[in-house]
Amino acid sequence: MERVPLKCELRKETGKKYTKQLRKEGFIPAVVYEEGKETVPLRLHEKDLLTALRTKAGENVLINLEIGDGPKGKGKGRVVIIKEVQHHPIRDEILHIDFQEISLTEKLTIDVPIIAKGEAEGVVKEEGVLEHMMWEVKVECLPTDIPEKIEVDVTNMKIGDSVLIKDLRAPTGVKMLDDPEQMVIAVEPPHVEKPVEEVVAEEITEPELIREKKEKEDLEEGAEAAPKPEKPGKEEKPKEEKK
Questions:
Q1: For residues 72 and 103, which has the higher predicted lDDT (pLDDT)?
Q2: Which of 90, 116, 199, 200 is most buried (most C-beta within 10 Å)?
Q3: Fold of 3-101
């Protein structure tokens, strides 16, 4: 996989006030880390990051991070992947980004998007619905073998057909880590909406049924709680007095 160069600078200050000012100036706060090493705070131009993300690999792109400004920035760049991107909850803005330094000779675990290819027969001819149960699959591979996507040809799928993890075709050197029996895509029957009259009838009838059931239960409970009448015993004859 091609590596995309991305320039950035060391960030000497931290804190919400400073990072807020950075964003106003067109920068995005970031960090780069590697297991067992010190985390390095960075800042980079938003336009440079967006350019790097516009490749076919998307957020799975391999980046050659060129760190400038200071002794830590000297020498060759770091090969990194994007570990996490924090977005604004309302506006479509990147607030912060985490990079993870990697080795090109060590396998890593990463999520790869699943893309449906073609139009399902069950959708076109039978008016079914194509349902995505999974949009990503977890894989293990070398950084240079990370696939851009995993395609699923749904053309011949009819209503009731499904695709499982074990049905996906992984590229050479890529191992699927999710449960092989987990469902990825399925063609479901069309959703039939009930007429308004039926919905209204159900809303009216259901409380009546519940009330009738409750009244019946109350009667049964009352019957069980009522004292049972005693069985009539044999009337004893008066004893005759001895003369």
A1: 103
A2: 116
A3: Ribosomal Protein L25; Chain P (2.40.240)
